[in-house]
Specification:
The protein is an all-alpha fold. Helix content is 82%, strand content 0%.
Length: 380
């Protein structure tokens, strides 16, 4: 429900800037899209490690509540934005106060038996993807009839409603009492040979896939704006919905592949296939093929993201889960910041959205090589 609230409107930032805030199509739209899309990422990159450390000290459930409440307030007040600069400021505040996925991931990883971590984090990713699938479809249709301002307000309301089941149902095991001096996360990681390097590779991989997915999401809307003149919100919403649905299915079923191939080979192969899907978005002259390619991109990212997150969960000591996932969230958020900047910057410099998509496809190939050659298979 929380991700549904976020994805209700954010995939349509380019349209909101163009139709509601008066930014003209072309270089200005590319640059303001990049700035507004990446603002929350840089703020989240700075704030996430702090929230992660607090989660290990004071509990992961309070961090989840904080992230949902922060998101509800900041998403809802975008309704009142009057110019692009105000939108960028509100996106900064949203990034600094939210971080729902990281908070939920840390809570689930810490509470789940080790033998079920891969499956459980797959379910988390599936829930995120399902919200991402439904949100753009409903949001795109609502935008056509009600306007994007009301869609942002509705997203804030949905985020507030998502607090109810967390407050009423979710329970967290009591944090174990601290005996003796507090042991730092770095000391815990140094107790196992090679663990810091393994986690650094996986956190870097999560950041790189975040660059690819966030850039692709923004570039798809710009690509469709070039291809069609009416119904862009509805068509892009359909594509994002298809991607989210495919990602949701993949995130639950990918563990069947990892049992045969292992986590590393599964993640590397899916990254390579994601590169082909992004390339197809850039080269296809047909809208229908672009929509299908968006769905394929979601399918393969729905394998890479939970596979690498599960490897992090399996490698990390219990007492460091929130801190490590906080740094992972920082990497992911920095990817959300950098991805739109790369995509929008290349599009503005070349005046060609397709060239930006080619660059993102190349980064996905780099991700495949990086995971395949540098990551290690976690112990079963």
């Amino acid at each position: 429900m929380a991700i549904f609230g976020f994805s209700f409107a954010f995939p349509f930032l380019s349209i909101f800037l163009n139709k509601d805030l008066g930014v003209h199509t072309g270089t200005d739209l590319y640059l303001w899209t990049a700035a507004s899309a990446s603002a929350s990422g840089i703020a989240m990159a700075v704030a996430s490690p702090i929230w992660g450390i607090l989660g290990d000290r004071y509990g992961r459930k309070p961090m989840l509540i904080r992230s949902m409440l922060g998101g509800a307030i900041t998403v809802g007040i975008i309704y009142f934005a009057q110019n692009p600069a105000e939108l960028v400021v509100l996106r900064l505040l949203q990034g600094a106060t939210s971080g729902t996925v990281a908070a939920a991931t840390a809570l689930v990883a810490a509470e789940t038996p080790r033998s079920r971590v891969g499956w459980a984090l797959g379910v988390v990713t599936s829930a995120v993807a399902l919200g991402s699938a439904i949100g753009p479809v409903v949001g795109g249709l609502a935008a056509e009839f009600l306007g994007l301002r009301l869609v942002f307000l509705g997203g804030g309301v949905l985020l507030a409603l998502s607090l109810i089941p967390v407050l009423a149902i979710v329970r967290e095991s009591p944090l174990p009492p601290r005996v003796g001096p507090r042991v730092s996360t770095l000391a815990l990681l140094n107790e196992q040979p090679g663990l810091r390097h393994a986690l650094t590779v996986l956190i870097g991989a999560q950041g790189l896939v975040s660059i690819c997915t966030s850039a692709t999401q923004q570039l798809v809307v710009l690509r469709l704006l070039e291809m069609i003149t009416t119904g862009v919100s509805a068509v892009s919403g359909l594509g994002f919905g298809l991607a989210g649905l495919a990602s949701s299915v993949a995130a639950v079923g990918y563990t069947r592949v990892t049992r045969r191939l292992g986590y590393v080979r599964t993640a590397a192969a899916a990254s390579g296939l994601m590169a082909l899907a992004v390339l197809l978005i850039g080269i296809s002259p047909w809208t229908s093929v672009v929509v299908i390619a968006i769905g394929l991109s979601g399918l393969f990212s729905g394998v890479v993201i939970p596979a690498t997150a599960s490897m992090i969960g399996l490698e990390t000591p219990h007492d460091a889960q929130s801190t490590v996932f906080g740094f992972n969230a920082s990497s992911v958020a920095f990817g959300f910041f950098l991805g739109p900047l790369i995509g929008g910057g290349v599009a503005a410099a070349t005046s060609d959205v397709s060239v930006s998509l080619y660059v993102i496809a190349a980064l996905a190939v780099l991700l495949a090589v990086f995971v395949g050659t540098s990551a290690r298979e976690p112990a079963r």
